[in-house]
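quick one
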Amino acid sequence: MTAPSAQPPYGTPDPRVPSGTPGAGIAVQGLSRTFGDHTAVSNLWFTVPPGSITGFLGPNGSGKTTTLGMMLGLVRPSAGNAFVDGVPFTSLQQPAQVVGAVLDARSAHPKHRALTHLQVYCAAIGVPDERARQMLDLVGLGAVARRRIGEFSLGMRQRLALATALLGQPRYLVLDEPANGLDPEGMAWLRDFLRAFAANGGTVLISSHILREIEQMADRLVIIANGHLVAETSMTDLRDAYRSRVFVAASDPARLATALAAAGHTDAQVQQDGRLAVVGVSADRIAEFAATAEVTLFGTSVEHVDLEQVYLAMTAGRYAAAPVAQYPGHGPHHPPGGQYPQAQQYPQSQQYPIPQQYPSAQQYPNAQQYPQSQWGQPNRPPTGQGGPTA
Ligand SMILES: Nc1ncnc2c1ncn2[C@@H]1O[C@H](COP(=O)(O)OP(=O)(O)OP(=O)(O)O)[C@@H](O)[C@H]1O
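structure w/ adenosine-5'-triphosphate:
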């Protein structure tokens, strides 16, 4: 993660940006940023609707942190603008009440104690001191409130950064790789917390370069590569676009396809090996259609699509890993990013992961204790920050 340099907010608006004011939510309109002759972000447009958890995905160096920095007024855009509820971030009257941000968990002063660190922010944004203790308890750091931050692990610092971001009871959370360093329990807690935050009307933009981390919690995705927008989609649409296929070996594939088509299931194609590939119909239903049409089935198999491979295909080309075959027995679980030059609807996949791998957290406070009714306390912006960034 590259920390953005603090610079005066916002550059000259991109003349291509229409003058209409965006509505509720976050709107990124034509953001670009060049560093010397390197274009880190190029004419980026996307929205984060209110109440959503939007995953912001891209490989290392694709421009995520730079984009978030521009959105929050910490990096000056070369062009474009970003709005929160229709207002440029730097024009918000009480930014810490609107947007809480976690950009670099390591930036907190190592000599400060966690509680003192938060109390300084409480004073800066004008919220009562008690909020510091409450937020430490919320993120599971109550027991180490008086320890120095320098003794914290990266995961503990991530929790502290989130606590800092929450001090102002914001409606929006902008999080740059907040799961970095978190253990599985911490990941599960973060996921539960963000879901509860969104269920209560909050809005989350969360960056990562790991789709598996995001797909368990996000309902929308914005994917960038090399500073360009690659996809902006709901998880539902992405899954629909890359639905599993059922392959059936049948005595009369054409007759079965006709029977399926008569019921509106037109996405069925006879393969070169004679099998019928059907999208959008379960294997059980296909068997029922076959029985009705008096077609005998000799075998059925389901090809699941791994969304991570789809993501790798979309973002291929940047820092592609060496072919797995060069390191027998030590290769990554998935093909390297360079393997699929273009997104293919059905990359070779074995199993779609079911997000059940983490048990629900016990030792951390229940995320439900952050209801919407807590929001809306008056406060002031922290100095020079898009919400407290620790
Ligand atoms: N202050 C800077 N000066 C020069 N180049 C920069 C600066 N900040 C970022 N860059 C470059 O811009 C590109 C995008 O960097 P950025 O940190 O935004 O990517 P990222 O997607 O957040 O990466 P990661 O996932 O590794 O954190 C990189 O090539 C980076 O080297």
